[in-house]
Amino acid sequence: MKKTLAAALIAAASLTAGAASATTYWVDHGVKLNARSGPGTHYKVLGTFSPCTRVHVVAYSRGWAKVVIDHHAYWVSAKYLQNRACGPVYKKSYGY
Predict the structure, then answer these.
(1) CA 16/CA 77 separation, integer angstroms
(2) pLDDT digits (tens, 9 = 90+) for 42-96
(3) Could you tell me which residues are beta bridge partners of residue 49?
(4) What is the DSSP track for the chain?
(5) Distance CA 83, CA 26 (A)
């Protein structure tokens, strides 16, 4: 019984520590990203993130990232996040 309780406490502490550490990501430029209530397309769209929006990822689930912005949590497709800030986008100039 004591071993089970100790294992549960250790597991709970590690989940809390993992949730407390967030990684900064940005929405890919050129993408308006749906913010959902859960990790899947069948969950309700709560809003959208504009390109280059900075978010903090706190969890992942099957290709979805749980992000926090302004103390609110949303789920977004992780494939549309990048680990660097958006830089200026220059149009090619051919000079003719």
Answers:
(1) 23
(2) 999 999 999 999 999 999 999 999 999 999 999 999 999 999 998 765 555 566 5
(3) 33
(4) -HHHHHHHHHHHHHHHHHHH--EEEEEPTT--EEEESSSSTTSPEEEEEPTT-EEEEEEEETTEEEEEETTEEEEEEGGGEESS-----PPP----
(5) 6
Specify the pairing of strand 23-27 against strand 81-82: antiparallel
- Both tokens of 78, joined, read 């992780």
As a whole number of angstroms, the distance between CA 83 and CA 70 comes to: 19
| Spatial contact of 11 and 18, defined as CB atoms under 8 Å apart | no
Sheet holding 33-36, edge to edge: 45-49, 33-36, 72-77, 64-69, 54-61, 23-27, 81-82
Candidate CATH numbers 1.10.10.920, 2.30.30.40, 3.40.50.11890, 2.60.40.10; the one for domain 22-82: 2.30.30.40
Q: Say what the pTM is.
A: 0.69
Task: Tell me the two tokens of residue 88.
Answer: 């200026």
